[in-house]
Amino acid sequence: MELPETIRRRLDDFSRNVLFDQTSAQMSPKHHDTFFPHDRQVLSSLHLQMSLFFNTWFFPLWWISEIVMLQLKYPALPEYYKFIVITVLILMTLIEAIRLYLGYAGNLHEKVPELAGFLLLSSLLQFPLILFQLFNEAILIQPLERGVHIVFTLFLLTQAFLGFVALRDMVRHTESQFHLRQSH
């Protein structure tokens, strides 16, 4: 399943124009070599892929612990926090499924728009939501919740950093290939 072309194009433009300015995308010496189609450089990040793999196995455990803890503390929560906590849980579940899919597709298939979408979902949506659940004492945080939220936050921070590095490398490589093709 591919992203719609308009979304793909916008994420591609975002990653090229906002994340990486033109001065930082100068070709490094390793990219000055002659390009041979059969001699393709792999740009996927092994560390990012390992983190995504472990996160995929951790997420169901996080979700189950959230449901169990929600059932335990639901009667003690104020009415407005009941709504907020359930909404945050549903949002995080949906975002995480999309985020992990985009991370896998962007990293393994070396697709810049998908990886940019993964980074945006990680930093703009998931990270604030997990911080809300980690630090808002009004939602009666239980010790199990605090533990799984800390692990989830570490996954998010690690993946944001590794995803940024992988995306930067992919954009630089794509740009260097463009310059090499233009010069020939």
Question: If you had to describe this structure to a student in words, what would you say it looks like?
Answer:
The protein has 184 residues and is mainly alpha-helical. Helices cover 75% and strands 0% of the residues. The longest helix is centred in the last third of the chain and has 41 residues.
Defining key terms:
184 residues, mainly alpha
Helix content, binned percent: over 70%
Distance separating the two termini: 35 Å
Question: Beta-sheet strand percentage?
Answer: under 5%
Order of helices and strands: HHHHH
Low-confidence stretches: 21-37
Return the average pLDDT rounded to an integer. 87
Note the total helix count: 5
Rg result: 20 Å
Shape: elongated
Q: How would you characterize the largest beta sheet?
A: none
How many β-strand stretches?
A: 0
Task: Give the helix/strand class.
Answer: mainly alpha
How do you describe this structure in short?
It contains five helices and no strands. It has 184 residues and is mainly alpha-helical.
Set out the fold topology:
Layout: H1 5-19, H2 46-73, H3 79-108, H4 112-135, H5 143-183
